[in-house]
Amino acid sequence: MTANRLTAIAAWTLAGLWLAPLIFALWAAFHPFAFSTRFDPFAPLTLENFVSAWNAAPFARYFLNTFLVITMTLAAQLVICSLAAYAFARYRFLGRNLFFSLILVQLLIMPNMLIVENYRTTAALGLVNHLLAVGLPYFASAFGVFLLRQTFMSVPKELEEAARIEGAGPIAVLRRVYLPLARPVLIAYGLVSVSFHWNDFLWPLIVTNTTASRVLTVGLQVFSTADQGVNWSVISAAALMTSAPLLLAFLIFQRQFVQSFMRAGIR
Amino acid sequence: MAVIAPTLPRVRAFRLGDHVVAWALIAPALLFLVVFTLYPAAATLVQSLYSTPLAHRPSHFIGLAHFRQMIADPTFREVLANNLLYAAGSIPLSVALALAMALLVDARIPGRGFARMAYFTPTVLPLIAAANIWLFFYTPGYGLLDQLLNRLGLPGVNWLGEPATALWAVTMVAIWKQAGFFMIFYLAALQQIPPSLREAAAVEGASRWHSFRRVTLPLLGPTTLFVLVNAVIGAFSLVDSLFVLTQGGPDNASNLLLYYIYQTAFQYWDGGYAAALTVVLVAILALAALAQFLFIGRRTHYR
């Protein structure tokens, strides 16, 4: 069993390396600045860095904005993608293959790469510095349509026919037959979408320039470049604070997260 | 009731109503897709052929002038070379590490749940927050890497300030961020390999390495290609860390294509040239997609 022991040691070493940045950030954030790179086990613990960070920038507003953006985006994605996925899974209609190929284009060219033209469109719609603009380009997600279509195709047709006999229309069939059966995939998609939009930076940076419209990632960047000089302890505290909800959710629902990303990847 | 069921046709008759319902169902998705992906992609192509409007001179057709400008632009050449190096460094390393991680946590070892969590954590950390933490590592004199070097009696290195190291420092962050994400796909694929295959190899006396090379690795082929395409997209779209670490510097030594597009469009306000640069970015990604199509086709769809 020495091979197994070697495997374990390799796995733990790599795990230590991978967690090191996070561990150092935790160290710096919870100790006074003087101890930020002095690893004295008896260094006093403090929450002062978090208090300073919180007071130095409108993080409460940034949290609210991020929360609103991801909620709005996910809600829109779930509705828009399940409608389209249902049509592609169960209807044969004129232009079906053409439209499906057009949607798949977005798997490759994502809206956040076409920043010049999408900024122009957003400006023309008068949405610069609106929270809506941060989520809008992502409302139709090719990935969501693709994932849900695969899932809906595996639902037995007999279930839909039974509902149709009872007089259910397409929306009722989608709501009562397909969506309940697709729940694990919807959750998987939701977790992937929330992590993506929580982390998104470039597009929100471009379309927002006011405190009222900035999301956490942009707020953190503004905060750490403008105000802080080199106070690592406060910057570490701010960085951890902005990641904390997602990180804690991940630690608590680790299995669901990992399985969701797996489920979303196997297509 | 039992009499009615068998007489129902399996596939409902074709009616105009079905087309209309289907179009209505896909209409919202198509609308957003057209407005924020297809139209901007086409408009970018058109805009790349027009000059950037100036106060005294409105936008006019200039043909391929932007692309000629690009060939003569030393910054563009440096940025493209950097991005290719960034891809050449981050793609193989993060994919190989991802495979190694998946194999490590697929083995029956104590603490595998912990190791899997550790590898995956960077995926859920915002890159902008993570980059701030990495800045702490790289800072000259005071940062952790330099402290480590000093303890070994070596002089410090200004990792982000030296043209020779800045790009590699940024590449390291990309590898760290992505490897655990790619690991997930390998882990999923490993769990789908029937244990009987590896047992059969073991019965025939194959060594661990032999069984890995002859049985496991070929079965992971489609996953590898899927991961590779994602890694290519990442290598050309993951630029958030530049905003924190180097701003593309020193002197463009760590600048990447999408970041240069951002600078051109939103710092130098040269929309036409930025559009032409975007055309190059999209062309590179389209080539990667074509490669995926030629090499894998539909084989990744193993469900």
Note down, in words, how this protein is organized.
The complex is a heterodimer of chains A (267) and B (303). With 267 residues, chain A is an all-alpha fold. Chain A has one domain: MetI-like fold. Helix content of chain A is 74%, strand content 0%. Chain A contains 14 helices and no strands. In chain A, 47% of the residues are buried. The mean pLDDT of chain A is 86. Chain B has 303 residues and is mainly α. Chain B has 14 helices and no strands. In chain B, α2 packs across α14, α8 packs antiparallel against α11 and α9 packs antiparallel against α10. At the A-B interface, α1, α3, α4, α5 and α7 of A face α2, α4, α5, α6 and α8 of B.
Domain count of chain A: the total is: 1
Average pLDDT reading of chain A: 86
What Rg of chain B do the Cα atoms give? 25 Å
Please describe the biggest sheet of chain B, giving its number of strands, its sense, and whether it closes into a barrel.
none
Low-confidence stretches of chain B: 1-11, 299-303
Give the name of the CATH architecture of the largest domain in chain B: Orthogonal Bundle
Distance between the termini of chain B: 36 Å
Q: What's the pLDDT, averaged over the residues of chain B?
A: 84
Q: Give the strand content of chain A.
A: under 5%
Q: How does the overall form of chain A come out from the CA principal axes?
A: globular
Sequence stretches where pLDDT stays below 50 over 5 or more residues of chain A:
none
Q: Can you count the beta strands of chain B?
A: 0
CATH homology-level superfamily of the largest domain in chain B: MetI-like
Q: What percentage of the residues of chain B does DSSP assign to strands (E)?
A: under 5%
